[in-house]
Amino acid sequence: xTKSRLLMAALVACVVAACVCGLAACSNSGNSASGGTAxxxxxxxxxxxxxTDQIEQIREQSGLTETDQWGQFLVENDMTPSSVRQxxxxxxxxxxxxxxxxxxxxxxxxxxxxxxxxxxxKSNYENDEAWNKALEQAxxxxxxxxxxxxxSLYEQKVGEHxxxxxxxxxxxxxxxxxxxASYYNGAKRSSHILIGVDxxxxxxxxxxxxxxxxxxxxxxxxxxxxAELAKANSTDTSSAQNGGxxxxxxxxxxVTEYTDALANLELNQVxxxxxxxxxxxxxKVTDVYNAPEDTSTITSIEQIPEAFRSTIEDxxxxxxxxxxxxxxxxxxxxxxxxxxxxxxxxxxxDIDLSKYSKSESSSSSAESTSADSTSDTTTTTESxxxxESSSSSEASTAEASQSTSASASTESSSSSSSAQ
Length: 420
Known about the structure:
Elements: H1 3-22, E1 37-41, E2 44-47, H2 48-61, H3 67-76, H4 81-104, H5 111-122, H6 128-137, H7 142-165, H8 170-180, E3 187-196, H9 203-221, H10 226-233, H11 237-240, E4 245-248, H12 256-263, E5 274-276, E6 279-289, H13 306-335, E7 338-340, H14 360-374, H15 378-387, H16 391-408, H17 411-417
Antiparallel strand pairs: 1-2, 1-7, 3-4, 3-6, 5-6
Helix pairs in contact: 1-4, 1-6, 2-4, 4-7, 5-7, 7-13, 7-16, 8-13, 8-15, 13-16
């Protein structure tokens, strides 16, 4: 990705995401004269030019600058220039509502915070000239970029507020467990004994390590305790302290050779010697999680392995935070005086769609998508809700997942048996 594309992705991702996710569901409203104002929110004007600029940015980034490309895209996706405009207006009015509501929550974005965010992005560029060129290529002026950053920070802070304030019940946690248990189905927990080799291209050293591993496997097969042998022999000293335990494969990224060997092992089965960039491993599966086919039978978080509980609880909190945020925002929008003006003529993205028609393959795909949407399960719905929650909710979930991984596997085991 070029730096100009990096800049665009970072700065207008929220706008593009809003359009892509919501265009199919948007509707037209608006009835007053337009002039140079697309809409007003409690008297604050949203210029028509700002709406147009954002649509043109999206066209540029999506490779839809040619009229025929744009027209065909709209028809294929059941959109019109009017519906695209309405979606952008919805996004911009929502931003205004959030900023006003943020102040009522005691949330403020300082100029210094905007400066820090801008300077952080500018640090990716060699000099001011390169930065200004990237801004221009991305369709921003310094002022419009600054405004976009400020709006984004407000949305982020409001999202963080609801994430921090979200209160979940045991019922919420159970619902989350029912939703996400299937994701962990088949997860395996394993321990290993590593016979480390500094230079794995040294055939003699690898042969000696393999011979030692085979001797240890013979001892295990004769009844020796795997955990005790790991403590005494594994060069992965950190995991050795825990009997060789390196945690669950769903929470850790192991090197390919380790993962492949683990996939072919059953509960309590011990592998043959497995070579990797770290030396020779002996792997034992110590636990396997099999989610119930009917996850509604999960009535307590205790039915989920402890290592997964933190992430599941955080997902429940993210869903609750998103629900609270959405309810708050809907209330604020309902209370706001939002006026959307009629769409003026002559806009660069407003084209005649009468000469375009859906392709046969697109129609079939749309029918299939519609059928799939109708039969979506609760899991898909909950996952979408979680994915749409604020950036702070996502960050919190990611941090929780990392924390769970850390508790399930030590730093040394990650460095010796996981792909970094």
